[in-house]
């Protein structure tokens, strides 16, 4: 007897088709899985055997061979349990082959016949939808799969439910999509006392999705400011939420199958390894920069990160994606994240303070700041100083602007950017931080006086071409916040004021 079940293999975000073929032939009893399976797939034999026994079914005393085609593709993960069990049910005549031809199956089995949640079901459902096929998956993954728009989803809690569904004695209902209720965060910009310049810089960074570096002594409020950035960022669109959720689904971080429309905020510790930050490992898993796609990546104590780890950020910051190369596969993940970084001016953090400065100043500051390379610093649009908060500001009970008030201005500025891109006939760009080349020149509309002013400053500061363009992008965002069509001297001057090189502090 020969049966075939459609299933998949993961290669990063790419979903590859796998044909699971089973042959039950005469001979000494044996159960073999071939087709380059990993340990988890090889162990599925025992899980499937126990699951079938829980239903009162036993494997035939014959030679059972399961082939996972294509045979040269490495098969990893426990999601092959369900297609293996379904192929056996077809092979022993419990389920009809015709009913399963138009379905892709993926799920892990428990020893009691229950179907356990797996990672990555959202991209699998999108893949099934593109091929006009249905999906058989765990009940716990049903709501996640439904976000794909796929109309034929069988989200079952057990093998028995699937058998009853195809026998017509039970109907498994279509799963319902759910949204995350939203982060009822108590973090608000109104809680930040003083630091008006830093707040202004954070608003500009939020409006144009610009990278930002804050330099200041310990306790000046750098982490406090960064943690409140998401409170002034607009919620993601459905398209952005799906993009981000696919990555989180692959990584197993999509909670309860609910789509979260608030922007991700990732805050890895400074001892994070390069694979943890950029992605990699044995299975080529997404790293922090991909998990913060369409959101914020906050790197506190920036110079304390390993130098190779920081240098690995350079290409993703420029291209918005990361390539992970392994011996067996080459994987790409999107990584359009907004980098917010914070650091002390020196190792003791008290550079410039006559009372607290250490005896090694200013040499220790030069060594500490040299841990951040020029090319990486060049990719950070805004670099600001965050001074210590004065006692008067700390004791002041009057609160500043709330996040809701700032969010209104940020949202309006982003709407202006969206409308501009639509007028240019461009659909894949969303913020000013993505403007490049001729498009940047057209969007800024510089007159001769403003252009001359910027060129003079660029010459005096020995700016690179990248720094020059990043100042233009920030100036465009400042003009958008003020609802100005053209970028003029005052916008460029403010943008330059946020482009301080560390050595000048």
Describe the structure in your own words:
This protein is of the alpha/beta class and 505 residues long. It has three domains: 166 residues, 2-Layer Sandwich (Ribosomal Protein S5, domain 2); 218 residues, P-loop containing nucleotide triphosphate hydrolases (Rossmann fold, 3-Layer(aba) Sandwich), CATH 3.40.50; 66 residues, Helicase, Ruva Protein, domain 3, CATH 1.10.8. The chain contains 22 helices and 18 strands. The strands form six sheets. The chain has a five-stranded parallel β-sheet with strand order 11-14-17-10-18. A four-stranded mixed β-sheet has the order 1-2-4-3. Strands 5-8-9 form a three-stranded parallel β-sheet, with helices on both faces. Helix 2 packs across helix 3 and helix 19 packs parallel to helix 21. The longest helix is centred in the C-terminal third of the chain and has 21 residues. The radius of gyration is 28 Å and the shape is elongated. The model has no long low-confidence stretch (mean pLDDT 90).
Helix-strand blueprint:
Blueprint: E1 2-11, E2 14-25, E3 30-34, H1 39-42, H2 44-54, E4 63-69, H3 81-91, H4 97-100, E5 103-105, E6 108-109, E7 115-116, H5 121-130, E8 134-138, H6 142-146, E9 153-156, H7 159-167, H8 196-208, E10 212-215, H9 222-227, H10 238-251, E11 265-266, H11 274-278, E12 279-280, E13 285-286, H12 288-291, E14 296-299, H13 307-311, H14 314-319, E15 321-325, E16 330-334, E17 338-343, H15 363-369, H16 374-378, E18 382-385, H17 391-395, H18 403-423, H19 437-444, H20 448-460, H21 465-481, H22 489-497
Parallel strand pairs: 3-4, 5-8, 8-9, 10-17, 10-18, 11-14, 14-17
Antiparallel strand pairs: 1-2, 2-4, 6-7, 12-13, 15-16
């Amino acid at each position: 007897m020969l049966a075939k079940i459609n299933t998949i293999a993961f290669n990063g975000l790419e979903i590859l088709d796998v044909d699971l073929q089973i042959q039950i032939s005469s001979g000494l009893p044996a159960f073999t899985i071939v087709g380059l399976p990993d340990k988890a797939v090889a162990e599925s034999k025992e899980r499937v055997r126990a699951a079938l026994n829980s239903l009162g079914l036993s494997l035939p005393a014959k030679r059972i061979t399961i082939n996972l085609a294509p045979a040269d593709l490495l098969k990893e993960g426990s999601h092959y349990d369900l297609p293996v069990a379904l192929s056996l049910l077809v092979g022993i005549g419990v389920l009809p082959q015709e009913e399963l031809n138009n379905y892709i199956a993926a799920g892990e089995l428990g020893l009691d016949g229950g179907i356990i949640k797996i990672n990555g079901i959202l991209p699998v459902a999108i893949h099934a939808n593109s091929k006009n096929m249905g999906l058989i998956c765990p009940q716990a993954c049903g709501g996640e799969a439904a976000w794909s728009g796929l109309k034929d989803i069988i989200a079952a809690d057990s093998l028995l439910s699937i058998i009853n569904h195809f026998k017509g004695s039970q109907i498994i209902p279509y799963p319902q999509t759910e949204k995350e209720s939203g982060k009822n965060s108590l973090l608000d910009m109104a809680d930040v006392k003083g630091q008006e310049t830093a707040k202004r810089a954070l608003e500009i960074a939020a409006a144009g999705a610009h990278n930002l570096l804050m330099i200041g002594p310990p306790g000046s409020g750098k982490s406090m400011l960064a943690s409140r950035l998401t409170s002034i960022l607009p919620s993601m669109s459905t398209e952005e939420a799906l993009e981000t959720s696919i990555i989180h689904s692959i990584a197993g971080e999509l909670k309860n199958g609910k789509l979260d429309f608030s922007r991700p905020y990732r805050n890895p510790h400074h001892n994070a390894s390069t694979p943890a930050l950029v992605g990699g490992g044995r299975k080529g898993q997404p790293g922090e920069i991909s998990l913060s796609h369409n959101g914020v990546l906050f790197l506190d104590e920036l110079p304390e990160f390993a130098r190779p780890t920081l240098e690995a950020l350079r290409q993703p910051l420029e291209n918005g994606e990361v390539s992970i190369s392994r011996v067996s596969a080459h994987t790409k993940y999107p990584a359009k994240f907004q980098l917010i970084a914070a650091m002390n001016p020196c190792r003791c953090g008290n550079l410039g303070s006559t009372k607290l400065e250490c005896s090694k100043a200013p040499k220790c500051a030069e060594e500490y700041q040299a841990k951040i390379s020029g090319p990486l610093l060049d990719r950070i649009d805004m670099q600001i100083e965050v001074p210590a908060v004065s006692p008067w500001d700390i004791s002041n009970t009057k609160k500043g602007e709330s996040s809701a008030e700032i969010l209104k201005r940020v949202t309006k500025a982003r709407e202006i950017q969206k409308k501009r891109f639509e007028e240019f006939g461009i659909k894949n760009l969303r913020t000013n931080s993505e403007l490049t080349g001729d498009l940047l020149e057209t969007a800024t509309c510089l007159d001769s006086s403003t252009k001359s002013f910027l060129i003079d400053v660029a010459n005096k500061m020995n700016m690179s071409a990248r720094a020059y363009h990043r100042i233009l992008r920030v100036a465009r965002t400042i003009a958008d916040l003020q609802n100005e069509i053209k970028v003029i001297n005052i916008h460029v001057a403010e943008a330059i004021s946020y482009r301080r090189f560390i050595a000048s502090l």
